Amino acid sequence: MHRQFLIPFIFCCALGFSQVGERGGRGSDVREEVTGEKRALIIGISEYQNEDLNLKVADDDAQLFKNYLTNIEKVSDQNIIYLENEQASAQAIYQGIDELIKVTQEGDEVYIYFAGHGDVVNRENEKVGFLLAHDVNGGRNYRGTDGVVALSALNEFVNQLTTTGANVVMALDACHSGFIYEEGAKTNMNTLSDGDNFVKTTKFLSCAPSQTSQEDIQLGHGYFTFYWVLGMMGAADIGAQDNQLKYSELDDFVYQEVASLTNNQQEPLVITSNRRRLFKNLIPENKEIAMLAHGKSINLKDTLQFLRSSTVVKAPKQLSNIEKQFKQLIDQWGQKASREKALELYQDANSSNELSGAQLSRMRFTLSRKLTNQSNRIINNYISGPKELPAGAEFYEESLNVRKAMELLDVDHPSYKALQVNALFLEAYSYIRNDDYQKFPLAEKLLKQAIDLEERAAYIWNALGILSNENHQFKDAATYYNKAIELIPTWVYPINNLGSNYFELLDYQKAIEIYERALEIDPNYNTSLQNLAAIAENQGYISKAEETYKELLKTDPDNSTLFTNIALIEKGKGNLKAAQSYYLQALERFPNNVDVLFKYADFLLENNISYVDPVKFLDKALELQPGYFKALTTYADFLRRNQSTPENLARADSLYNQAILNNPFYPSAYSGLGYLQHQQDNPEAVKVFEKAVAANKQSVVPLYNLAWFKRHKLNNIDTAITIHKKIITRNPYYLPSYQELTSIYQSRDNDEAAIDLVKNFISNAGENPENLLLLGNVYFQQGNKEKALEQYRRCLQLDPTHTYAAASLALSLIDEGNFEEALPFAKQAIEDNPIKYGPETFSSSLSRKARSYKRDDKNNLALSAYRLAYELDGTNTKPAFDFAQQLYFENDLKEAASVIEKANDDTKSWKEKWLILKLKIAVLEKDAAVAEKLLKEYKTLSSRVDPVLKLLVLQLKNRNKAKEFKNNINAAYLSTSRLMRSYNEATIKIISDL
Asked: What is the C-alpha to C-alpha distance for residues 731 and 209, in angstroms, rounded to an integer?
């Protein structure tokens, strides 16, 4: 049973160009003999640079045809140019055709065979066809890019071959399994059949205009190529069986075999000036092999390979010394010195007469291909969408390499204009990639020059859109994106970018509609899925966003933004441990990504994580991208906050101003500079915040920074309220302004206004962990503990990993005396955020609660509070001592001793306290020797010893002397209130009995 794969676009033999004569037309039925050489260019591409385009057997089809030519047609290997998979770049194909043109003479027979992808695109009211080379991009951006062979250019080359008097046999079996468009193969074939383009050629078509071509994986070939080769070997000679194969016989054989196997879904054609004309004379031995292969008695592929191994192959032509040296340098292309020497070697050879024109041409084309290989990859990655693109410096370097390649090509070379466009794009995008706002006018100029060269280069229009977005020219950006979409409606990248344009304008609904439009075209387009998650995050649906990011990360682990987005969410929830984990994973995978380096450094500084040096990450980011405005800003923040010497403050001022110069829209640079000026008592500081607002009219962040500064630095609270209200009118989901407003209202004892504000927020935005946490905090501040607990619990139901909610719930439960329920939440907070919620956060709260219980004579509850504090913070001396002391008060001497034994704080003050406690226990255990020893040790630490302690030790040895000693003690030491503060009931009874 055949496994069939539909192949929508078939640029079969001669791609359906019109016949010279009608089927069955009159003419000579004798084929002209080949008086010259047989030559061939064979191209087979199954493995594309863009793996989404990969095919199954196109390279196997090409190999089958090559073996046919060498073993049946006896074409010399020296006369075959064979390009397979990664060898078959567009420039390599052009070079192959160029070499054929240079050597073909009258009487030669030239075979051109292509197996791979083909496509047809609209150009106004015209259809334009392309063969897709190995280095084609995946977004159908054929204009202004390398990686395609235009059929119009191929037509010109074939015409040049036929004008020499050569016969051209052409078969282009372009299997296209990835692009299924509305009109499918029918549109392509009708387009390609229109006009007498390929004259003096024999044409073979794998299917009719309305059909698609199919391949059989079990057969290992496409049906057309397999039966075409079989027929040419003799299996088609089934009429007169005179070993004379006519076009009509070959046509009928291939038609019947392929149509039968595909249930008439594929009907091949042979197009020639006279179907009755002789195609070739057959050799009986080859015909016998073909018949056996047709009957499946032998494997055609293996048999042809065997015949090849038994054929005497001519030794390849020896390379000259210059060519050998050149080849060695090309093999070492990764080394800069080798690249430079290869170019020098060609230039020297070109200026001498040592090599022929064909030899120089091969060197020239090889250099051009090598110089543009990496630039093609970069451009293709850009076209695929916002992947991990290299730094701007590499874009710029590749623009120089492309220009070097252009110097090697004639201006009428088919790739020349595409390389011109590439060079302009690469230089322009180097400035965009570097966020070099001072160079943005130049970038715009270069991109518009590229448009002048190729106005249908959609990827250039898209780059103009990105540049306009960066310049906050949102209307222009939308125009450019829409132009790119108009040119290639199926290219999702500009559609996604158009959505992001509305996202930045806070038009979330419009952005969502456009992202969903992109996903209708490509349901697996991760960038649009990621952006939809970002909108959910901005609207407060943090858990939903995080879930999406983590799901996308499974299929897209090379996306640094996913790692940092998750890290930022975890940080926002207070889960610093998880946040740091994601940052470290990102750094491991993307050690040279400046955005990752900056974000991690900013994270370290913001959260006062002192055990990692943030400066080294900022230094590396600035080394990779000098002038990177975000790294400059964070570096200045570090100097302002942590190393505020006059010299460092002056340097911070310079860094902030440089960051603003490099990006006049970055709010953090303005706010940092404003805080610095305020720190230096500059009354003009507020104007810096106002400049940020003026520069960022679409963003609420500068407004928030201004409001915060007005309230917290200038004490202008009423103005801050006005600004925050303006913010939430513009962006009703902006949580920080709700947090500030509730804080202001409650500081003015207006709890109801705060509660109403948050409830309205939840009513409009929907219930999510962030706004529930805010409502809980408002209730807690109001003193309504019951409602606060309700909101915290609800928050954790929605997101059990929310550290801030866990900590708030734990502290509230402690305050309510619900220690058992509080414990797991306290442990969660300590585990997830040891910086903000160290064990002492909860142990100190428990200690306060325990002291409150003791004042109310609730000693059992006090012991429970101290026990939990010790469990959470046992390595800290104070919780350990408080717990041990309370155990003593409860007369649990054994457990108290166990806690004391684990104590390891040898500071003098704590050592004294531990000695006193141990002495008290020894007294109750009536261990005179230990008690006396402890008292003696205590005297070495303190010159003033409590007389009650002396009394207790003395009574263990001599009660009469103890009674006398007691009579001489100041009565204040023996007051009931004092004794109850320091001793348990059993110890007080001992004293009172004396």
From this structure: 55
Longest pairwise C-alpha distance within the chain:
147
Q: Is the pLDDT of residue 211 over 70?
A: no
Residues belonging to the chain? 994
State the average pLDDT for the chain: 89
Output the DSSP codes for 115-126.
ESEEEEEEETTE
Q: Give the span between the Cα atoms of 656 and 662, in whole angstroms.
A: 10
Q: pLDDT for 399-428, tens place per residue?
A: 999 999 999 999 999 999 999 999 999 999
- DSSP3 helix / strand / coil % (the chain, rounded to 5): 65, 5, 30
Do 408 and 340 lie in a common domain? yes
Distance CA 646, CA 597 (A): 27
> 112 and 191: one domain?
yes
Q: What tens digit of pLDDT does each residue of 212-258 get?
A: 677 788 888 888 889 999 999 999 887 667 889 998 899 899 899 98
Give me 384's structure tokens: 């695929």
Q: Is the pLDDT of residue 26 over 50?
A: no
Distances (CA, A) of 841 to 247, 686, 831: 91, 36, 13
What span, in angstroms and rounded, lies between the C-alpha atoms of 533 and 555?
A: 16
The 3-class SS string of 595-621 reads HHHHHHHHHHHHCCCCCCCHHHHHHHH
Q: Tell me if residue 951 falls in helix, strand or coil.
A: helix
Let me know whether 206 and 169 are in one domain: yes
Distance linking the first and last C-alpha atoms of the chain: 108
Pairwise CA distance, residues 141 & 143, whole Å: 6
Mean pLDDT (whole number) for 143-154: 90
Please state the domain count of the chain: 4
571: confidence class by pLDDT, cuts 50, 70, 90? very high
> Exposed, middle or buried, 403 (CB in 10 Å: 0-12/13-18/19+)?
middle
Instruction: Please tell me the predicted confidence (pLDDT) of residue 41.
Output: 97
Together in a domain, 13 and 119:
yes
Tell me whether strands 126-132 and 117-123 are parallel, antiparallel or unpaired. antiparallel
The reply to whether 653 and 754 lie within a common domain is no
Of 279, 307, 342, which closes a domain? 279
pLDDT (0 to 100) of residue 209: 53
CATH code, domain carrying 642 = 1.25.40.10
Q: With 80 as the cut, is the pLDDT of residue 891 above it?
A: yes
Together in a domain, 693 and 708: no
DSSP-assigned letters across all residues of 739-783:
HHHHHHHHHTT-HHHHHHHHHHHHHHH---HHHHHHHHHHHHHHT
Q: What is the spatial distance between Cα 565 and Cα 559, in angstroms, rounded to a whole number?
A: 10
What is the identity of the amino acid at 939? K
Report how far residue 951's alpha carbon sits from residue 988's, in angstroms, rounded to the nearest whole number.
12
Contacts of 391 (CB under 8 A, 6+ apart): 433, 434, 592, 594, 624, 625
Which helix H or strand E contains 269, and what residues bound it?
strand 269-271
- Write the burial class of residue 273 (CB in 10 Å: 0-12 exposed, 13-18 middle, 19+ buried): middle
Burial grade of 681 (CB within 10 A; 0-12, 13-18, 19 or more): exposed
Q: Which of 309-313, 696-700, 749-753 has the lowest mean pLDDT?
A: 309-313
The domain of 439 spans 328-454
DSSP secondary structure string for all residues of 207-263: S-TT--EEEETTTTEEHHHHHHHHIIIIIT--SS-SSEEEHHHHHHHHHHHHHHHTT
pLDDT band at 268 (very low <50, low <70, confident <90, very high): confident
Q: How do residues 741-774 score in pLDDT, each as one tens digit?
A: 999 999 999 999 999 999 999 999 999 999 999 9
Write out pLDDT tens, residues 608-639: 887 888 999 999 999 999 999 999 999 999 99
Mean pLDDT across the stretch 702-727? 97
Which amino acid, 31? R
